[in-house]
From TrEMBL:
SUPFAM superfamilies: Ribonuclease H-like. Gene3D superfamilies: Ribonuclease H-like superfamily/Ribonuclease H. The lineage of its organism: Eukaryota, Viridiplantae, Streptophyta, Embryophyta, Tracheophyta. Residues 5-61 form the RNase H type-1 domain. InterPro entries: RNase_H-like, RNase_H-like_dom_plant, RNaseH-like_sf, RNaseH_domain, RNaseH_sf. This is RNase H type-1 domain-containing protein. CDD domains: RNase_H_like. PANTHER family: OS05G0353850 PROTEIN, RNASE H TYPE-1 DOMAIN-CONTAINING PROTEIN. Coiled coil: none annotated. GO terms for molecular function: nucleic acid binding; RNA-DNA hybrid ribonuclease activity.
Length: 62
């Protein structure tokens, strides 16, 4: 399986989000998800949140 994650942060309005996708060994999608983040004030925090949530979902789906 391969997990891809991305966190994004906009300093102009403090909006943030994370997205993740888990694929099987043939490239088929197992799941994809997006999450709007509240109380996020840094790009690094958005990236870390995406990794944490992605890993939790990957464990649940494997």
């Amino acid at each position: 399986m391969a997990l891809s994650v991305d966190g994004s942060y906009n300093a102009t309005d403090d909006s943030a989000g994370s997205r993740m996708i888990l694929r099987d060994d043939k490239g088929g999608v197992i799941f994809g998800a997006y999450c709007k983040l509240f109380h996020c004030n840094k790009a690094l925090a958005a990236e870390l949140h995406a990794m944490l949530e992605g890993l939790k979902l990957a464990i649940d789906h494997s």
